[in-house]
Amino acid sequence: MGRLYKFEEEFKTLANLIWIIAGNIIYAISINILITPMNLYNGGFLGTAQLFRYGLANGLGINLPANFDITGIIYFLMNCPLFYYAYKSVGIKFSLKSLLSIGISSLCLTIVPVPVKPVFDDYLSACVIAGVIGGVGSGMILRGGSSTGGTDIIGVCMAKTHPNLSVGTVNILFNAFVYLTCLFLFNVQIAIYSFIYTTIRSTFMDRMHTQNINAKAIIVTKKNGIAESINKEMGRGVTEWTGTGSFTGDDIQILMVAVTKYEIPHLKEIVENIDPHAFMTVDEGETVVGNFKKHLA
């Protein structure tokens, strides 16, 4: 049993690493290939890094290297203070995985070439396609227990203390500064389309990041041990009642547990291993108030 558990943990770690690496590559491609050539801007810290790059090149007249984009380097330096915040708020694993993720993301943003000519002729097509691709990439990173840095780190940390707050929502709220700056420096069109892109990206990121979605499960069983296994394996509290089946007249246990959508497969596995004949209903999108801890990393 111990070897099986160790194998499952190692497999989960490898799977998370694949999610993180693949997500960062997809995310960086969506920005450098689709967004940057259109002179559009990301939100949050990455958008701020893009504005810094613009200021260095156009405000200070510094000749930046043509063969790579320094946005990734600026972005990495801006994220350095957040690693400690992530460590204190979420834990060492999330902090280290975020460091790895931001390192990969910064590298990809630096080395992925930016096309001289935009892939799309119109802003809306670029916003929609880049938003979907970037949102999927960002969601993959979050599902791997990491983040793309910046407002994602802040969002995950805040979601730990505010269970009904999603990372995507925090991203949108933190983007006001970037787009107000775009409105001041450029024009209304750039600001509006940049906001459209980020809104689409945040929406698809939340769709992928199922740790954000709360759920309530009610389990009806005749066997003991399910509640204890949920406590031990998932770290979740369970409310338990005793009841009687109206059709059979048999004594039954009624269990209720609040989880995230991401944890539902694990919950089903626990129930099926102990009582294959148990009856379980799951309601997603529940509002949870009180002592509920999101397992985000």
TrEMBL record:
Which cellular components does GO assign to this protein? plasma membrane
> Residues in domain DUF2179?
236-290
Q: What are the protein's UniProt keywords?
A: Cell membrane, Membrane, Transmembrane, Transmembrane helix
Q: How does it sit in the membrane?
A: Multi-pass membrane protein
Q: Where in the cell is it found?
A: Cell membrane
Membrane-crossing segments per the record? 14-35, 70-87, 99-116, 172-198
- Where it mainly occurs, coarsely classed, is membrane
Q: Name the PANTHER family on file.
A: UPF0750 MEMBRANE PROTEIN YITT, UPF0750 MEMBRANE PROTEIN YITT-RELATED
Q: Would you tell me the protein name for this molecule?
A: YitT family protein
